[in-house]
Amino acid sequence: MNIDKILEKKIKQDSGIQTDLPVKKSGLKKISIVVLLLLFVFGPIFYVGVIATNLTYDTSSLVDYKPKMSSCIYDINGDKIANVFEDRHRFFAPFDEIPPRMVEALLAIEDTSFFEHSGINYDAIFRAIIKDIKAMSMVEGASTLTQQLVKNTLLTREKKISRKLKELILSYKIEAELSKKEILERYLNEIYLGHNYYGVKTAADGYFHKELKDLTLKETAILVGLPKAPSYYAPTKNYDISLGRANRVIERLHALAWIDDESYEKALKERPTVYDETLTLNKAPYVVDEVVRRLKEQFPDFKTGGYKVYTTIDLKMQKAAQEALVYGYEQAQIRVKENGEGYEDQNLTKFNGALISVDPEAGEIRAMVGGIDYAKSPFNRATQAYRQPGSAFKPFLYQVALDFGYSGATKLIDISRTYDFETQPDEEGEETKKWKPKNYENNFKGLITLREALVHSRNLATINLVTDIGINTITANLKKYGIKDLPSDLSLALGSITLSPELFAQYFSSFANGGMQTDLTLIKSVDRGDETLWEHPAQVTRRVAEERQAFLMTTILREIVQRGTGARARVNGIELAGKTGTTNDSIDTWFVGYSPSIETVVWFGNDDNSPLWRREQGGWTAAPSFSYFYRELIKIYPQMPRKFEKPDDVIEVTVEGKQKEYFTDISKPPQVEVKAEADEELLF
What is the DSSP string of 301-329? Predict the structure, then answer.
């Protein structure tokens, strides 16, 4: 006897109507049946009511949808350097950017009646219940896209009836507050698609290196098939299984007549190329860190704000720079291991380097490598390590002399001088010490031309030059380069200041750019969406030397590479100019130089400022990296300028049948020749 008949007979009995219901049943039993019936009918309703009453209807995170978005950093050619994000990697795609085919594929496999229901598909629920009962297990779900969105954003993943009821109620509410397009937009940007990709735009970029509009039908099917089991169906893990899932999506589209036979057959056969890469795709970690560091104050939400940063970096040059630095590092290690006594005890764990390359005319950084291995040391030595340049600083001193009318043919005195200086008073009173600088070769030339003095980096000739011009005059003229904290003594002649490779590159750009110095920049602009939020202002350029006078310096620096201390920086097929630098005890080794269009600074040393091994110097340590970099550069850009162009107002003459010298109306040929003995010693 069914429940309806039992209820009918109970009503008749209570009204005095005769029934065939057994009268011998106890009253207590009758009451129990009524209570059970009431609980059966009204219990679920009461439970839903309690849940609904206690539920917080906060849907603001979906209605006012502002997900955390990854930022991207690009090089000067628009190639991506890296993705930057906080915890989830996501690119946002507005609904208008989502291809209609992707929406169709998603609805075909997940929720065909999406545009007909109000958040809950009752027909699907009943079908699922019947299938589950027949199978005696949960074999089919019935969640709509709205329910899935609610579950993934507003609720936890706990498997309780209360959570399911909350999901149903919130789904109704979301459908009332958002349009179908808005729900689809949020769903396609929120879903997890494996490999830590959130949203279809992120997955399209990561798996296929494509924009959404460029996806094939098969690639689209792979993406919309992922939400069911993103880790299992991820094409980077289970490629064939992922294709099988995509084929079911395509078959469903065909069954619904949403694609034709030709598209169906073509899509089934396709096997797309899938990329399995790191999330950040970080091709230049030192650059990325520097960009983040420079933008963190102006854009504190940089890692979550969905910004696009366009830099001055050239990824091809960046790769060459990294290889060049590693090459110089490895060559130095070989020398240590092969040169026997004095080398075998060297601790190479602290040995490191940096390379920065710039376009001196534009003032833009093209490559920046802050160390040999970022994974071992993320400290950026190109921008944050301040070291002494040693003899690499000498061109600034010689340029002052050229601007004062000296020329490459001017004779300088290359003899020993002893200087007295006072130290702090000791217990017995003031103490006077003597400073007697020497040349690297431990010899004297007596008289030497300015050109030869710089080509062979003669310390004594340089000190005598600074003495002749006057230290105060020298420092006053160096201020136009922007160089700060200049010492007011003769140690300046040996490069006793401290600066970073980046700062050195900026100062040195005046030689590479015909006497014009331009402030360096790394970041060109910052965009979000279609709006440019920040753009680098016009470059600040200063003339620090006349073009003709700067060219005189270039001719000397060119000879340093051709036949002087920088001979290991030579590259066949291109003219290079530059200067070596080595500080006392080989603590710092440098090579700074340029081609007609690109300037580069290389530094090597120990991070703890301890001396390098015996006889190590800029010409040995840094110059090979410089040479390697330019060898690669002319392969990358074979049309780059190869020769320095002489200004029309520079006179070129041949001295003694072979040596070329250059003069201007400022730096005229010398009129009087001065003689001095090489072994003469002056005491000051």
Answer: TTTTBT-EEEES--HHHHHHHHHHHHHHH
